[in-house]
Prior knowledge:
Elements: H1 2-28, H2 34-62, E1 71-74, H3 75-92, E2 96-101, E3 107-110, H4 112-129, E4 135-143, E5 146-153, H5 160-167, H6 184-197, E6 201-207, E7 210-218
Helix pairs in contact: 1-2, 2-6, 3-4, 4-6
Amino acid sequence: MDLEVDGVLVAAHELKAPLAVMRQLALAFEGAGSEDEHIRSEMLNVSERAIRQVNDLTKIRRLEDGLFEMEPVAVREVCDAVTQELRRLFECQNRELEVNYSNRARLVTANRDLLYSVVYNFLINAMHYAKSGSRAELAVQDSKGKVKVTVRDYGPSLPIDVWREIKKGWVEKPLSVAMRSGSSGLGLFIASKFSRYMNAKVGAVRHRDGTSFYVELLASQQARLF
């Protein structure tokens, strides 16, 4: 398994340079009309999302060094930051993004950067697989002493074999997800690795009209001080 993951990391490293070049070309490109500006915007969106995912992949091997400090993290603030970054992208793709917070425990034990990546990957998947004109939903709620962050999409249901793999609480390697091609399997792999490092649990719920992915985080005991 380590050899397979190392192969993914090598490929990610090789991809980073051309992706950065593509982003610079997009920034330098100044079209004359609205169609050109749309192309430029798409180039920037694709390159920036790909670079972020490449950066996430390079962090995976660094997890072994314990460099990512665990601390009390304001979960709503992280979700707000992710949705602020992605909301315009959802609008451009003709998809709505709904957010609902009902958690009383405001702090979780996590690493902010890793938690940001988990929520980001879940939402990017939801954007890809929600039907045009439909919505994706981000919810944060208390769950038996933990805090649960859930992203619900209205795309193809998750295949049963992939659901069983996720049910174990983690994903050992990038998965190829039928009916959910693209970054779905890789995003789940990244989210699973980061969640496991944070002692959090990743899971999925299959619906007739889509899938919910979630991560359950330990509520921070520091919250009792406030």
